[in-house]
Automatic annotation (TrEMBL):
Catalyzes the reduction of dTDP-6-deoxy-L-lyxo-4-hexulose to yield dTDP-L-rhamnose. This is dTDP-4-dehydrorhamnose reductase. Keywords: NADP, Oxidoreductase. One of its GO terms (cellular component) is cytosol. One of its GO terms (molecular function) is dTDP-4-dehydrorhamnose reductase activity. It comes from Kouleothrix aurantiaca. Belongs to the dTDP-4-dehydrorhamnose reductase family. InterPro entries: dTDP_dehydrorham_reduct, NAD(P)-bd_dom_sf, RmlD-like-bd. One of its GO terms (biological process) is dTDP-rhamnose biosynthetic process. Its EC number is 1.1.1.133. It comes from the Bacteria.
């Protein structure tokens, strides 16, 4: 298949390249190739002649979205609308990458695929707008929600590794809970999904969930650091955006198709080993 990937230079875009490149003809679209958020995006994407479009490109700076919600909506909402319109012209299914932050975080158990969305911040609202545009405009689509993504050069895991190497103590939020997710595992799941006609909404996250504090503790433990961690509350961590406190995702729909995601701890171990061996950046950062 000819597969167009937006945001091809991001951590999920790069994982998709590694997963799909050996068996498919990839059309890689970065910022310079696609005016996401502009109507021109429709013609630019339609001109690729893609059989499938995978759309991870987004404005993902959550605090930046809070500061400029109009930009967030233009890129994540309208931008996705334009991508969906291009898919209509192409007659191609769309894989839209969404987020756990479409949920409000008031639940006490992981969210299923068709639980009611209730985003509480600008980022979540803009990604929910994208979901609605996909559902309104297309008959063939896979909406794939991910969370707490790691696997590239910039993410929570990398930040904790860097800080743990520099400091003796770190303060981490203990009452924000989510689903750590390894980008290569998401890419593998998407590779399986696009071979099926089972369109709909999916949660592709590694199994299990934890707090930011527990996530950091496991990172430090696996990397062999002795850095002390102090738990703090979300209320004590000042930032521009409001954060949904509990947004683990349950993988029910993909599991029904035989797409199972391993525990996040196992995925983390593979990622840290790759960093230590210099596989990801060409040199070890630990």
């Amino acid at each position: 298949m000819r597969i167009a990937i937006t945001g091809a230079n991001g951590q999920l875009g790069q994982a998709l390249q590694r997963q799909l490149g050996p068996t498919h003809d990839l059309i890689l679209l970065g910022h310079a190739d696609l005016e996401l958020g502009s109507p021109a995006c429709v013609a630019q994407l339609a001109a690729t002649g893609a059989d499938v479009v995978i759309h991870p490109a987004a404005y993902t700076n959550v605090d930046g979205c809070a500061r400029d919600p109009e930009l967030a909506f233009r890129v994540n909402g309208l931008g996705t609308q334009y991508v969906a319109l291009a898919c209509r012209e192409l007659g191609a299914p769309l894989v839209y990458i969404s987020t756990n932050e479409v949920f409000g975080g008031a639940a006490t158990s992981p969210y299923f695929e068709y639980d009611c969305a209730a985003p509480i911040n600008a980022y979540g609202r803009s990604k929910w707008a994208g979901e609605q545009a996909v559902r309104e405009l297309l008959d063939r689509f896979y909406i794939v929600r991910v969370a707490w993504l790691f696997g590239g050069e910039r993410n929570f895991v990398r930040t904790i590794l860097r800080l743990a190497a520099e400091r003796e103590r770190l303060a981490l939020v203990a009452d924000e809970v989510g689903s750590p997710t390894y980008a290569p595992d998401v890419a593998a799941g998407i590779a399986q999904l696009i071979e099926t006609p089972f369109y709909g909404t999916y949660h592709l996250v590694n199994s299990g969930h934890c707090s930011r504090y527990d996530f950091a503790a496991e990172i430090v433990r696996q990397a062999g650091f002795r850095t002390a961690l102090d738990p703090i509350r979300l209320a004590d961590y000042k930032r521009d955006s409001v954060v949904p406190p509990f947004t683990p995702l349950a993988n029910l729909a993909a599991a029904a198709l035989g797409i199972h995601m391993r525990p996040w701890q196992a995925a983390l171990a593979e990622y840290i080993a790759a960093i230590q061996q210099g596989v990801l950046s060409g040199r070890s950062t630990l």
